[in-house]
């Protein structure tokens, strides 16, 4: 696993150099026309000491960056902002959601990203930056937009994949033969949606905070791009809530279908029991050791058989007509 730092520097909106030693960051920041990016993968607190001293990062923010399972948030400190977010990926079977934490220190002319592992595709982030060179002149706002856009697009892709899985679950629910693992997969999907909601919902507040003018982070030309990210966050949040309701409805529908099927089975068993009960009563009566009409006579035996057949057919016809059989 490659944990070496990755660096880039832009000068006047043009990429000048990349993968230079992190110790040179302070030299580039000493020049007024540069913007610097540094990426650290799975660092410890000591690994952040050098850059925290050069950029004047808050110890609380550094502690959050090396801690795990922090909620998505945007904290404001003296001289910089601290961002925490999660990228998500749906497993191959579509029932497990993998999340990867990423933090960012945002200063006036530097962006420092801190990843807990290699699950976040940093190469895809670089491709996004390289795909919009005309926006590089906006400095850190340009870098931050690429990061948030990639994270939110991942949320959207996960929601879309979960939606497809739920559609397949709906088709199985009303199939003639429901797979045995339908219930298990429905609970897994519900769990994945709950986890995704905990990741997506706070992003609404994060992006909305960045759009506030008092932070003075986003220049006016970049505001529409961040507004577009905010709209995607809202759509992902609403879509996630809608899918959670859908999964809940599917579970309730499955229980109702099982209950209806059980009632149908019980109704049929009850009907057959009634059909069998009447002939049993007749044979039981004729089995009494007492004289009865036709006792010891052949016509009495024939009459009893006829009564059995007629009552059985009559009961079957009535129950069949009422859809009890």
From TrEMBL:
TM stretches of this protein: 269-287, 299-319
Coiled coil: none
Alphabetized UniProt keyword annotations: Cell membrane, Membrane, Transmembrane, Transmembrane helix, Transport
Pfam families membership: CorA (PF01544)
Lineage top rank: taxon: Bacteria
Main location: membrane
Location in the cell: Cell membrane
InterPro entries named among the record's database cross-references: CorA_cytoplasmic_dom, CorA_TM1_TM2, MgTranspt_CorA/ZnTranspt_ZntB
Family: Belongs to the CorA metal ion transporter (MIT) (TC 1.A.35) family.
PANTHER family: CORA FAMILY METAL ION TRANSPORTER (EUROFUNG)
SUPFAM superfamilies xrefs: CorA soluble domain-like, Magnesium transport protein CorA, transmembrane region
Topology of this chain in the membrane: Multi-pass membrane protein
Protein name listed in UniProt: Magnesium transporter CorA family protein
């Amino acid at each position: 696993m490659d944990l070496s730092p990755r660096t880039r520097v832009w000068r006047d909106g043009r990429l000048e150099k990349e993968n230079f030693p992190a110790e040179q960051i302070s030299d580039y920041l000493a020049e007024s026309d540069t913007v610097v990016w540094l990426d650290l993968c799975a660092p410890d607190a000591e690994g952040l000491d050098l850059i925290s001293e050069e950029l004047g990062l808050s110890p609380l923010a550094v502690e959050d960056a090396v801690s795990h399972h922090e909620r998505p948030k945007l904290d404001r400190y003296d001289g910089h902002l601290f961002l925490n977010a999660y990228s998500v990926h749906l497993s191959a079977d579509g029932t497990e959601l993998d999340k990867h934490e990423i933090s960012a220190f945002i200063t006036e002319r530097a962006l420092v990203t801190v990843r807990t592992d290699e699950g976040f595709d940093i190469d895809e982030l670089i491709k996004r930056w390289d795909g919009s060179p005309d926006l590089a002149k906006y400095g850190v706002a340009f870098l931050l937009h690429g990061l948030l856009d990639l994270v939110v697009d991942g949320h959207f892709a996960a929601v879309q994949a979960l939606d497809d899985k739920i559609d397949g679950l709906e088709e199985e629910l009303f199939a003639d033969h429901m797979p045995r693992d339908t219930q298990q997969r429905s609970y897994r999907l519900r769990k994945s949606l709950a986890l995704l909601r905990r990741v997506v919902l706070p992003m609404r507040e994060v992006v909305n905070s960045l759009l506030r003018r008092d932070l003075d982070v986003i220049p006016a030309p970049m505001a529409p791009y961040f507004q577009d990210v905010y709209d995607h966050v809202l759509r992902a949040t609403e879509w996630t809530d809608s899918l959670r309701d859908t999964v809940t409805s599917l579970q309730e529908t499955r229980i109702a279908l099982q209950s209806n099927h059980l009632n149908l089975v019980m109704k049929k068993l009850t009907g057959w029991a009634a059909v069998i009960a009447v002939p049993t009563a007749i044979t039981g009566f004729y089995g009494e050791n007492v004289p009865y009409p036709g006792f010891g006579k052949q016509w009495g035996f024939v009459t009893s058989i006829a009564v059995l057949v007629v009552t059985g057919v009559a009961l079957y016809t009535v129950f069949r007509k009422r859809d009890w059989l």
